[in-house]
């Protein structure tokens, strides 16, 4: 078995346990077989051209979603189970964000990250921006095309890309001391991904 597949199968077992699926071993084996086939597909080759996207990871999540759906789970249940599977990874990232949130230049870090990410995404074509406006105390962008969404759509489960769309919402929920995040819509179930990242309390500081 491909080492990547074996690693993701171990992670997927946590989702299976959370979903209380009977015959967990058979379900995990089915997932591993599915993921191996997906890695060998023409679609995987087509999608593996974006340096800013870990396509192997995205495909593993897609395979988890497809497997859980086949066992009768609703989309909300699928999302919850996948998040349980990657709980350790999420906790580690949350810890890092918690430390960044304590820094007085937290907004400046978020601002630099967004500007840098925009440049990389534009360079490799992984995101299609309608607008990307950088102001002194805020950034606003609207995205009409996203290769993450395209991958999920190619496998018939576009709505479940919300697993990745919610990454920003969850991340900024850890950066509340200096940053306000406003999500107007996302592409998993809407016409665009439209977000604002705002420096919190800048007006109060400017007035003092």
Give a short summary of the structure.
With 208 residues, this protein is α+β, with helices and mostly antiparallel strands.
Query: Strand order, biggest sheet?
Result: 1-2-4-3
Low-confidence stretches: none
Provide the gyration radius in Å. 19 Å
Separate helix tally: 10
Number of strand elements: 4
Oligomer: single chain
Report how far the terminal alpha carbons are from each other: 62 Å
Strand-residue fraction? 5-15%
Helix content: 55-70%
Order of helices and strands: HHHHHHHEEHHEEH
The dominant shape is globular
Strand-pairing-aware structural class: alpha+beta
Q: Mean of residue pLDDT?
A: 94
How would you sum up the major sheet?
A: 4 strands, antiparallel
Commentary on this structure:
With 208 residues, the chain is of the alpha+beta class. Helix content is 60%, strand content 15%. It is built from ten helices and four strands, in the order αααααααββααββα. It has a four-stranded antiparallel beta sheet. Helix 1 (3-19) runs parallel beside helix 4 (55-70), helix 1 crosses helix 5 and helix 4 (55-70) packs across helix 5 (75-85). The chain starts with a helix and ends with a helix. The model has no long low-confidence stretch (mean pLDDT 94).
Q: What structural keywords apply?
A:
208 residues; alpha+beta; four-stranded antiparallel β-sheet; 10 helices; 60% helix; 15% strand; globular
Layout of strands and helices, then pairs:
Blueprint: H1 3-19, H2 24-39, H3 42-47, H4 55-70, H5 75-85, H6 87-101, H7 106-124, E1 127-134, E2 138-146, H8 147-154, H9 162-172, E3 179-185, E4 193-199, H10 202-207
Antiparallel strand pairs: 1-2, 2-4, 3-4
Helix pairs in contact: 1-2, 1-4, 1-5, 2-4, 4-5
